[in-house]
Amino acid sequence: MPESSPETHIIDYRAAEHLLAARDPRGAVKLLDSVIAAHPENTAARLLRARAFFASAQLRSAELEFQLVLEREPDNAFAHFALARTYERALRSDRAKRHFRLAAALDPKPEYLEAARFDAPK
Fold it and tell me: Tens digits of per-residue pLDDT, 38-66?
């Protein structure tokens, strides 16, 4: 097996993006595992891996990865939104609502505002 380097990690990250876009989330996770092992502080790689976990219905792994991203970047609206979608898919709507609302408060994108349902009765 070739020795990994920063360049190979960048290549693996970009390839993982393409795999996720091509609907091969498990392939993306495999590539990202080595990137994250070498660079555990890389939030972008963790966010991409969380998306890949979500896309492959590995909801608990997605949840943990999104939470780790939010520990490092509590103002990451996309991570809040994606974590909320993860909770929603896992039928945990109480937790989802909080993160949908945080996402919308941090970034008032129409899809975040719609998901937050601020005008809906409590």
Answer: 999 999 999 999 999 999 999 999 999 99
Q: What is the CA radius of gyration of the chain?
A: 15
87-117 pLDDT, tens digit each: 999 999 999 999 999 999 999 999 999 999 8
Other Cβ atoms less than 10 A from the Cβ of 15: the count is 15
In whole angstroms, give the CA distance from residue 77 to residue 91.
21
Our separate counts of H helices and E strands in the chain read 7, 0
- In this structure, the dihedral spanned by the alpha carbons of residues 46, 47, 49 and 51, taken in order and rounded to 10 degrees, is 160
Q: Which residues contact 100 (CB under 8 A, 6 or more apart)?
A: 80, 81, 84, 112, 115, 116, 117
Residue 120: what are its φ and ψ, rounded to 5°?
A: -80, 150
Tokens standing for residue 83: 């974590």
Distant-in-sequence, close-in-space partners of 23: CB < 8 Å, separation ≥ 6: 55
pLDDT, position 5: 81
